[in-house]
Amino acid sequence: MPLPCAGQVWDGRGALLQWNFEMIYNVAIDGTVFRLDLDLDRETGSWRCLLDGREVQIDAVLAQPDVLSIVIAGRAYQIRRERLASDVRIWVGDQSYAAEVSDSRSLRSRKARADSGKGPRPLVAPMPGKVVRFLVGVNSPVEAGQGVVVVEAMKMQNEIKSPKKGTVLKLAVAEGAAVNAGDVLAIVE
Amino acid sequence: MFRKILVANRGEIAVRVIRACRELGIPSAAVYSDADRAALHVLMADEAYSVGTAAAAESYLNISKILEVAKCCGADAIHPGYGFLSENAKFAQACAGAGIKFIGPSAASMEMMGSKTRARQEMEKAGVPFVPGTSRALESVQQAKEIAAKIGYPVMLKAAAGGGGKGMRLVHTAEALQPSLEAAQSEAQRAFGDGEVYLEKAILNPRHIEMQVLADEHGNAVYLGERECSIQRRHQKVLEEAPSLLVGPEMRRRMGEVAVRAAKASDYWNAGTVEFLVDAEKNFYFLEMNTRLQVEHPVTELVTGLDLVHLQIRIAAGEELPFRQEDIVIRGHAIECRIYAEDADNNFFPSPGKIETLLSPAGPGIRLDNGVYAGWTVPIDYDPLLAKLIAYGQDRQQAISRLARALPEYFVAGIKTNLGLFRRILADKSFQSGEIDTGYLERLLKIETDGEDRKGTADVAAMAAAVFTVLESRVTASNNGTGVAGAGPATSSWKRAARTEGLM
């Protein structure tokens, strides 16, 4: 049985129940936003990666500062990063792209503030999927980063975490419901 | 041979000369300005001496200081590289006066070639062809019409005192000659206080082709073939190659013999280059003689198999040329790209600054004459040439494919470079078929590029950007004990602030 690592939930009989991606980013490449869910096993150096919710087999090693070797489903790329005063550029071969990485939690929370001011913040579905279950009930106190709801997509279960310390104000969907990316799942105040 | 050579230059050419000295077993002494203490040529030389402040006039052009350093350190020869003091006859004279050998021609040869009028007189005597026209001011419209009719339209009117395009008029027909002449004269009068205008045959979209010559101090001179230097931007060469697709063996021989005559007419010795304008009918006309090693000398070295800096040093040491003209064979093809620190997206403005990352190309047929390293700050005070990437192949096709292979291996981060420009040139059909002239690059740059064909690897870039962030947040996490997945040093402070707010 594989050793459990951060973000994984096992049922005690060796079956993986859910996988909570440790790091979720929205990456704008020349203005087009990609969502990246990433996990890195620090012991083995192995990665798990979802690109816009689709699993991609990747392997990545930092060759030297700003130079990355990334192997994507067997295809090898040498990636160079250029950090300019104005922006960050990612070079793939002789093509270069303006890249902006933002922590998706931060983006969500900013969006939430823009939507509804300082008060309640919604938890939104990061990708199309099915609501498996809620981990907390209405009026439960939650810590920032605590799991609130599990959404299954692409046969993978993802824990959606609270953006802030507070109280669950509302559960917006029913367990078992199909949701689209951006749908509000719960509201934390 | 010399006891020690002082290299009175900086950047890639100083490194180039220092390497040659080491190969010949001669100790080298570098000089540097305050801005160049950490420059690559200082790191590579056997000895290094400060010669003044960053301003070139106070350091690399400071004749008395450089000679003082040469005497103190025991150098008995000075290699001037190109630029700076390399074509300064006074410096060559001062070296001779100080008993130090100047590795280059005599001051007298430099003076003669440095004066346009004297050079023209001597060159015409030696039978060197010039663009047909009058070398003196036109006296009347009638005279202008007669000369224009004789040499054929189009003709160019040029201000005798001129420069920078002022007082110049291109004239296609006899009818247009009088108004153009009057306009040119009044413009010249206003711009230079001298209304004298002369007339030349207009060479439209000429090629710029130059001939390398090498002469010893015993009267022997040879030519080493031509370099095609038509790819220029604002009179600055960008890409050079040898041989030229336009020049066959017969034309090479004729151009070479003219170049050798020009060298002999000025009692020239050491390495020199005769520049020609070449028209569409392959007529070539003398432009000027550069009395020094050229930036683009490596392409000639690759196709002749000779080391021009070794030969310069041997000639200066009094040796005879070790070969004759019939021993010179041009073999294969070489292309040089001048890598400048400049912003191609911003009108090619110089882009000095710290080089954060430097990945250099290598492998078969690739030569990199480089003057910089990662971590070094390119100073704002000098020419922005960082390096020269030169490819050699058995033919032009192979040289192009090797360059095209090497360019993506080359990566410079922290400052902007013109590397992207070479990808464009190499991919261009006109370049590939050799249809180039001095207007080629400006025409190419006017063509809008479509960014759409570059979207193929955007998803790869996205994954890479996120992976960089994860790998760096891991370092951050282990360093400061927080487990927060930050975006590392790459993110701007507003982004960090936004994240902090988001985690409140």
Question: What secondary-structure arrangement, pairings included, does this model have?
Answer:
The complex is a heterodimer of chains A (about 190) and B (about 500).
Chain A: E1 8-10, E2 16-19, E3 23-29, E4 32-40, E5 47-51, E6 54-55, E7 58-64, E8 67-72, E9 75-83, E10 88-92, E11 95-103, H1 104-116, E12 121-124, E13 129-134, E14 141-142, E15 147-153, E16 156-161, E17 166-171, E18 178-179, E19 184-188
Antiparallel strand pairs in A: 1-2, 3-4, 3-11, 4-5, 5-6, 7-8, 8-9, 9-10, 10-11, 12-19, 13-15, 13-18, 14-17, 15-16, 17-19
Chain B: E1 5-7, H1 11-23, E2 28-33, H2 40-44, E3 47-52, H3 63-73, E4 77-79, H4 89-97, E5 101-102, H5 107-114, H6 116-125, H7 141-151, E6 155-159, E7 169-171, H8 177-192, E8 197-201, E9 207-215, E10 221-233, E11 236-242, H9 249-265, E12 270-278, E13 284-290, H10 297-304, H11 308-316, E14 333-340, E15 342-343, E16 349-350, E17 353-354, E18 357-359, E19 366-370, E20 377-378, E21 385-393, H12 396-406, E22 411-413, H13 419-427, H14 429-432, H15 440-446, H16 458-480, H17 493-502
Parallel strand pairs in B: 1-2, 1-4, 2-3, 4-5
Antiparallel strand pairs in B: 6-7, 6-8, 9-10, 9-12, 10-11, 11-14, 12-13, 14-21, 15-16, 17-20, 18-22, 19-21
Helix pairs in contact in B: 4-5
